[in-house]
Amino acid sequence: MAGLFLGWAAFAQMMPDSTVQVVAYWQVGDKYSYQVEQSTSRIEGNDTTVVEKSAEILTFEVLEATDSTYRVLVSYDDFQHSDYARLRAHDALEKAFGKTNLQFITDSFGTYQRMILPESFQEEGEAALEEYAREMCKERGLGEDAMETVKTIARGLISPEAYSKAAEAEITPLLAFHGTRLDLKREYESSIQQPTLIGEGTIPMTLRFWVDENYTDSTSVVIRTYQEAEKGALAPFIANMLGQMAQNVTSEDVSEGINYISQADMTMEDFQVLEVHLDTGWPLFYSFNREVVTRLGDQEQRQVVLKRVTMMD
User: Fold this and answer.
1) Which carries the bigger pLDDT value, residue 40 or residue 250?
2) Hey, what long-range contacts does 36-39 have (CB within 8 A, 24 or more apart)?
3) What string of DSSP letters covers 45-77?
């Protein structure tokens, strides 16, 4: 499996030997925007409830290209969210940092390497967290003694670490196969450790991916991915993560939630589709569908996350 991710000749795209390679042929000044839409729904029996919806515009701009790396500016615009707290968290970040711009580095194939955070990010993030907590306490009629509790809960949304992880989680799926040479006739499988956006640790998962020949031609390649959490791994991980987040929070609801998840049987499946333009290496379309099923006794609840990333004209 390791050999699959080794670099190959950069001039190759659709190979004559039934393989295809995704390579970045980017130029300084390249700039592409994407419409990002996401929703989370909860399904119980025949009832479906939309828990939250969000949308934003994601833009990539190549700032620097060398023989071995690309440096890319990523910016976010027109953020919308159905959850008031998330919207205010975004507003607090934008007030502290100004317009949200980050940079990341890839290798010469376009494979993601690392995020570049401004030196002032940590200090400004703490300022944003303080302001957000103060405003939320004021608007919800909470006293000063609630400030630390609100900050603890909000840290997962506003801290520089959380923000960097969230940005990486949005960027890396679009570049997941850059530098990879894939056999059109083969389905690949491996075991992975899936990082989470909040808290520490990873979830062990089984990953399968393959090229969809029905939608792949000399213009673009379509890669489908399926992954599932290993049996019995999800519930204890989430219960532990909630416990870490709630260390400084005294709440009966939190304790009951952790207890419920600890006893439940949980499964998680992800389905992804990625289309990449072969001549340039820019992603054209990405979709993500996650289904988490929680069973306890005769009760069953499904949570479905849908995400679409579409290149704009």
Assistant:
1) 40
2) 36/170, 36/307, 36/308, 36/309, 37/307, 37/308, 38/305, 38/306, 38/307, 38/308, 39/305, 39/306
3) TTEEEEEEEEEEEEEEEEEEE-SSEEEEEEEEE
Q: What is the DSSP string of 3-35?
A: GGGS---TT-SB-TTSEEEB-----TT-EEEEE
**CA 115 vs CA 92, 105, 313: distances in Å:** 21, 6, 27
pLDDT value at position 311?
98
Sign of the CA dihedral 8, 11, 15, 21? positive
**Distance from C-alpha of 300 to C-alpha of 297, rounded to nearest angstrom:** 8
User: Containing H/E element for 115?
Assistant: strand 112-116
CA dist., res. 277 & res. 224, Å (int): 15
Can you give the pLDDT at residue 250?
A: 52
Q: Are 203 and 193 in contact (CB under 8 A)?
A: yes
Give dist(CA 38, CA 58) in Å, integer.
13
Q: What is the pLDDT of residue 298?
A: 80
Map out the domains of the chain with their CATH numbers: 2-311 (2.30.230)
> Do 95 and 115 contact (CB within 8 A), yes or no?
no
Q: Report residue 204: phi and psi, to 5°.
A: -70, 130
152 pLDDT higher than 80: no
Q: Which two tokens stand for residue 159?
A: 């801290």
Length of the chain: 313
Tokens of 52: 């939250």
